[in-house]
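Problem: given the chain below (175 residues), write out its structure.
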Amino acid sequence: MRKLKITELNRLTPEAFKESQKIPLIVVLDHVRSLNNVGSVFRTSDAFRVEAIYLCGITACPPNAEIHKTALGAEDSVDWKYFNDTLEAVNNLKEQGYTVCAIEQAEGSVMLPNLLLDKTKKYAIIMGNEVKGVQQSVVDNCDMCIEIPQYGTKHSLNVSVTAGIVIWEFFNQLF
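Solution.
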């Protein structure tokens, strides 16, 4: 087996990415404090053609050298918008017809392997703060919670890892 050269990967230019078909998914970052996590979510969102990222509260925005370190330019290809308040972002999404899903361990959450998406709908997923998760007031205003089953001793995953797992599942079902 031979590793492919970067020139053989046929990657889109940022301009072509902007014009490409996206999955009907917006990723919302609710008070995510780590700039590396923000950059990683941009990079994953680029890889799987996410429509946009909403950055809320204390979540940092591009341009930012620390975000760029992990985003590697994806902050220039993926559309993003800033909201001071995550509930404002949720209300905005609902007005636009999105089904809003908190990625959180909650009563009545849908386990990710059991999630069935409707290709005719638009979705938003909310990723929470590294310590506190998605704010309860935001969870209260979501249409559903989605949970990643975990079988070890820890009760959480890094927010950028969680985003990668969930975005991949949405891509598989919607693209």
